[in-house]
Amino acid sequence: MNEEIDIEVYQGQPIASYSLWDLGIIYKSLVEAEKKREEASKHHKFDKKNNKKAMDFPPPNPNFLKLKNAIELEIRKKQS
Asked: What is the mean pLDDT of residues 27-45?
């Protein structure tokens, strides 16, 4: 079930319809989510050096990264 999302839309609205302020808030929340993911990847249950039963950490969702990049591009457009 590898479903593509429309990266031009966030929560049902076109990215271009959001104000620069709102895009900044959305972008900040996406960056925070990445930081939390990075922190979670360091949990002992994913540490293969010290835990033989360690699980593989799942790869990042490519749609998340596309959405983050699309929002960043829209912010740059609105700033110029």
From this structure: 91
Residue 71 near residue 10, CB atoms below 8 Å: yes
pTM exceeds 0.90, yes or no:
no
Please name the residues in contact with 5: beta carbons below 8 A apart, sequence gap of 6 or more: 63, 66, 67
Work out the mean pLDDT of the chain and round it to a whole number.
87
Is 61 exposed, middle or buried (CB count within 10 Å of its CB: 0-12, 13-18, 19+)?
A: exposed
Question: Which pLDDT belongs to residue 4?
Answer: 55
Kindly tell me the burial class for residue 22, based on how many C-beta atoms sit within 10 Å of its own C-beta (0-12, 13-18, 19 or more): middle
How far is it, in rounded angstroms, from Cα 19 to Cα 31? 18
